[in-house]
Specification:
Layout (H helix, E strand, L loop, with lengths): L1 E7 L4 E7 L4 E5 L5 H11 L2 E6 L11 H8 L3 E4 L9 H4 L1 H5 L10 E3 L3 E5 L2 E7 L8 E5 L4 E5 L2 E2 L2 E2 L9 H12 L7 E4 L5 E2 H7 L9
Parallel strand pairs: 3-4, 4-5, 5-6, 10-13
Antiparallel strand pairs: 1-2, 2-3, 7-8, 8-9, 9-10, 11-12, 13-14
Cofactor: Zn(2+)
Keywords: Hydrolase, Metal-binding, Zinc
InterPro entries: MBL_Glyoxalase_II, Metallo-B-lactamas, RibonucZ/Hydroxyglut_hydro
Length: 212
Amino acid sequence: MKWTRIPLGPIQTNAYILEDDSGSALIVDPGAEAEKLISLIKEKNVKPLAILLTHAHFDHIGALDLVREEWNLPVYLHEEEKDWLQNPSLNGSARLLGQGITAKQADVLIEKDQKVKIGSFQFDIFHTPGHSPGSVSYYFQDEGIVLSGDALFKQGIGRTDLTGGSYDTLLKSIHEQLLTLPEPTIVLSGHGPETDIQTEMDENPFLNGFSL
């Protein structure tokens, strides 16, 4: 499986295109600049199968409807944030932008940690709340990558001062759901460059000294 990171919008939120050997693809967090993202997907000549949302903050959903409508794609989102796509107060756009960003409701609501298969893509979904109540991470074991959204960054963690955020909950999620993955696992975050589990265990200043 190949992956491509595309920073989009004023906050440079990372969208990802995941491609398998057959030319199928998954799209993760289409946050902004829909035309740019759609053009890139078409240039790659892949067939998107679904959109995976790590959570429903405005900077991760700004291009959602245009991208989903281009290929009539199902959208996956945790049930804790099922109302956020249509509510600017919940998704943060009212507070942080002063204007409302909305999208249509998700098609598939994630209710629990589970294994999922879409086409040839097989992955685990882990509930990793703290940055937001419905944050999830997508773990592709065979490829050794995890898409952590805004839970875990290179040398950082997600902010917890937005609706439903909790610092203690976020640290618990990271330690129980992410740092338990194999140390070479590559972490693809919602902002910034990739890292790996071992590096963050050893060097992330927010994680050192935390105990459950």
